[in-house]
Amino acid sequence: MNKVKKLTNHVTKHISKFYKKYISETLPLDERFANIFLIGGSVTGFVSTVVLKIISMPWTAILFSFILSLIMSAMFLAAQFTKKHNLVLKITLLIMNFVFLPPIFLSTGGISGGTGGYFILGIVCTSFMFSGIKVGVLVALEVVLDILLILWSYVLSDYMVSLVENIPYKYLLIPMNVLISSMAIGTTAKLFFEQYKQEKNKRDRLISTLEDLTVRDPLTGLYNRAYFMDFLEKQIKIAQKKEMTFSIVMFDLDFFKEINDKHGHMLGDKVLIEVASVLNSSVQSGDIVSRYGGEEFIAVLLDRDKETAFIKSDQIRAKIEKIRLIDGFYIPITISGGVAEYRNVLSIESLLSEADKNLYIAKNSGRNKICKSELEFVDGIY
Q: Which residues contact 297 (CB under 8 A, 6 or more apart)?
């Protein structure tokens, strides 16, 4: 029992590796489609060879089926070796449609033998694989060839295998051919649909990444100044229309130049990243934090008047003051801020000017402070 289990696990493991390497949806479309087509053709050819032998079909049909399966296997190996899956698949398709299908069709009962369905499959595959004038020419040639073969099977019926004399063939091979053709077409359609979804998801992720690059600061990951200005303009219009209020807070790291001079710009960048992380994680949903300049940040706090924005920004100031270690270095970090509340009479320039002025007051009053007006500020009230 254990041997059977080990053997099952061993086989399952190899099948899984084979699938990931040759059929996985992570492969490029042309490579995946070629592998499925060639592997499927090889397996189908060998199975057909066995079935034809069992039901005592003519040796010509058995031989053609066996040779076709060998060619499909060889083409699969050629595709892996050359890495030109698309070219190998096109060559295989032409060999199958123009060299092997005609004799197989004629040696297995002609139009009444069930293999006529493969003509349709061949035309569908040609339509997928070729483009431009090539697809028109090839499809036309295949249609002409198929019509001639069908006429031949009617006119020269004495040269066809009689289904009446081969009852197993009549009841086994015809439904099997229909099933194989249906599965092949269905698999092809499903493959293209899955690949389309995968490519669409990749494209959507790429578009999202590109959009982020246009609105995000590459160092801190915060929104950049351009995005902030656009957001602020829209928020002012909303506030005017709905008679809402909001506040902005302009932050500036204290003594940041000294940190750069003493520890270098790489560590200075890590300080900016750490501070940005604290700022971003401290605001509520709907609020935004942007990198406004070198060591300047600015936040939009929605539905907050000056007092509540003032309290919130001082809580943020206190969190940043607790940062001590950056990459193992003891670096005291403090931040100053200026608060401004939007009022209907204020323009963007006036709002920013008020926040900047209050930041200037906080800076010139000892730093590590939040200022909300010219007359008062708080020094670590929490």
A: 222, 250, 251, 252, 275, 276, 279, 289, 290, 291
Q: Which of 169-173, 181-185, 240-244 has the lowest mean pLDDT?
A: 169-173
* Residue carrying structure tokens 């940040």: 297
Instruction: Say which residue the tokens 């270095």 belong to.
Output: 329
Are 193 and 339 in a shared domain?
no
Q: In terms of domains, do 232 and 198 share one?
A: no
Measured CA to CA, the distance from residue 181 to residue 118 in angstroms comes to 7
Q: What's the chain's average pLDDT?
A: 81
pLDDT band at residue 363, thresholds of 50, 70 and 90?
Answer: very high
In a domain, 216, yes or no: no
- Domain holding 141, by residue range, is 2-210
State the residue for tokens 């300049």. 293
- Decide if 55 contacts 166 (C-beta within 8 A): yes
Token pair 């090839």 in the structure block, residue = 138
Spatial CA neighbour of 111 closest among 140, 152, 142, 172 = 152
- The CA distances from residue 275 to 158, 231, 311, in Å, are 89, 22, 18
Which DSSP symbol is given to 330? E
Output the 3-class SS for 68-131.
HHHHHHHHHHHHHHHCCHHHHHHHHHHHHHHHHHHHHHHCCCHHHHCCCHHHHHHHHHHHHHCC
224-240 pLDDT per residue, tens: 999 999 999 999 999 98
The CATH code of the domain that includes 330 is 3.30.70.270
With the CA atoms of 108, 111, 117 and 123 taken in that order, what torsion angle do they form, in degrees rounded to the nearest 10?
110
The owner of tokens 């003032």 is 310
Q: Crossing angle for the helix pair 29-54 and 85-95, nearest 10 degrees?
A: 30
SS3 (DSSP) at 315: helix
- Average pLDDT estimate for 154-158: 66
CA distances from 350 to 78, 237, 313, 356, 361 (A): 71, 15, 20, 10, 17
Q: Report whether 205 contacts 324 (CB < 8 A).
A: no
- Same domain for 34 and 106, yes or no, is yes
Q: Strand ranges (DSSP E) for the chain?
A: 246-253, 288-291, 296-302, 325-326, 329-330, 335-341, 370-371, 377-378
